[in-house]
Design brief:
Layout lengths: L16 H15 L5 H10 L10 H8 L8 H15 L18 H14 L46
Helix pairs in contact: 1-4, 1-5, 2-3, 2-4
């Protein structure tokens, strides 16, 4: 018997764009009768229109648990299309029955939530600190601070080929 993938609790997947995206995708998972993830993966592989996309059962599980948000819309769309096919939902039908929230299809709504989930970072990594400014080199007076007797010149700044004697 296949294990049912449950929505993670809020302490694992806090409120925000990622949770909204996962909740919306899980809506189609539930409508499809919570199919085994291996079945979803095999259907993706078998679809002629999804030839260039793969999604292993582990990938599907990680998406439905909110552990990963794929950066490739085609992968999300493949999972979505297969879940819609199993659940007999038209992917491009209006998402909202009353059109109160505007004209938006199921696919457009999911894509908007996916995009928001990708853009949002609940705990962004700290910005790297800029490098400290380099100290200005201190000018060395001729004859001081140099171990090379050939590098001093009393006539001004720079070096001379003449020996100091």
């Amino acid at each position: 018997m296949a294990r049912i993938i449950k929505m993670p609790p809020e302490d694992e997947l806090p409120e925000g764009p990622r949770r909204e995206f996962v909740g919306e995708l899980r809506r189609y998972y539930r409508a499809a009768g919570r199919p085994p993830l291996r079945h979803v993966s095999k259907l993706i592989e078998g679809r002629a229109d999804l030839k260039e996309v793969t999604a292993s059962q582990e990938t599907v599980r990680r998406i439905l648990r909110g552990m990963v948000i794929p950066t490739d819309w085609n992968r999300v769309n493949a999972v979505f299309q297969v879940l819609c096919e199993i659940g007999e939902i038209a992917p491009d039908a209006d998402r909202w029955e009353d059109s109160y929230n505007g004209e938006e299809s199921n696919r457009e709504h999911l894509k908007r939530l996916w995009d928001a989930a990708l853009e949002a970072e609940p705990n962004p990594p700290p910005m790297p600190r800029p490098a400290p400014p380099r100290p200005e080199p201190t000018p060395v007076a001729p004859g001081f601070g140099s171990d090379d007797p050939w590098a001093t010149d009393s006539s001004g700044p720079g070096f001379s080929d003449e020996p100091p004697f």
